[in-house]
3-hydroxyadipyl-CoA dehydrogenase (Durusdinium trenchii), 477 residues
Amino acid sequence: MGAGIAQVAAQAGHSVVVFDRDDDALNRGRASIEKGVAALLKRGKIDAAEAAAMPARIVWTTSSYELKPAALVIEAIIEDPGVKADLFATLEGILSEGTVIATNTSSLSVTMLAATLKKPAQFLGLHFFNPAPIMKLVEIVSGAVTDKDIANAAYDLMTSWGKKAVHAKDVPGFIVNRVARPYYAEGWRAYEEQAASAATIDFLYRELAGFRMGPLELGDLIGHDINSAAAKSVYHAYYGRTRFTPSLAQDMLVQSGRLGRKSGAGVYSYADNAPSPAPIFADADDETVLSAELDGETIDLMTLIKSGDLSLERLAASPVNDGVVVNGVCFAFSDGKTAREHARSLGMPVVLFDWLADLSKTDVMAFAASCDSAAAIAAPFLKLLGKRSVRIKDRPGLIVLRTLAQLANCATDAVRDCVADGASIDVAMRAGVNYPFGPIEWAKQFGPDKLVDTLTNIADTTGEAIYWPNEVMKNLD
């Protein structure tokens, strides 16, 4: 991380000093930057002259005294408060009077770290994301006494380095590691409740919502020991606030040594002969004869589709109590209640579809059915509409919708708690963890009133307060 930050600063034209007590660490950092510069040159991001100039701007040293001329020092050592405090004490004995010290911590309180310094007002967090030369986000974290002018200057500096800078309050997890918790928590909960196979769950996050990786495969990549520890850290730091509850299933993987790719197995196996994880699609019986009810008439389904009187767009716009009825089965998109709840209310079988970003850009839809006979109609119905289908468990909010709704809940929690403003949270989630959209942006597009109703339905049906929408959500414009 330190070498990556040094590369970013050098690429911005600064003279940089990299200090480490270990020569081997310095050599690894130097090699990392040489590789990074070569990659930039190959991609045409810099020319040959700049490729030669960048490494020349960096001094590598085991002597802390060479840091003395620095205007800004960024610490990127292990997440140990005592070790960091020792380093800061050394730095304050060397650095100039006006030098700003920043920590790259992702998990420790900036206020707590600043308390060990003689000049805590000149201390702040600059949280880069790994790999620093590639990831755009930097969270500017002000401690309780950080000088506002210094925080604003840091924001301007990071922006000049080509970063997406956001101001964040000094709270556990800052913005990203706090707001992202439901992405993992809801993915793990769907897995624990056997809402679908692991590969199907991950597939739906990618295919329906546009995430680069599903939460289970992402946990395998990060390492379940690291990911679970982060979840527990945030949970305990907030005194057990239930929106941040860690996963028991993930903890069991850690206890069994199945840490993910690095151990050869996690949710998935990474053995040489292991089959590639694949989603499970529903079978569509081509012999099924389908007809729809429209204005009191029963009409051949294909006739309605060809005429434009029946479409997925109409389905998406229709509430469940006015959904499309095919072969006596009501079809609609999820509103947070289960298909079984709606079936009891309507007096007919019900099929509910999970949320998806764009009906025209995916050939897959996920559905839950109130009964097997309804599910048997769903797959051929979707096939006629040009979609493959995935059957998932009938649960409140299904999978993708429930996750996005809870992400929006956590994001608006953060607005309420003055962690950051809504626009900064959206920037942070897109630039820090590559979300396809910001959670507050998504909430506004989905419809705040509709989302409040959806979350209320999930909370009522599950009986769990973690899903209750907060007051900021209820007042989104």
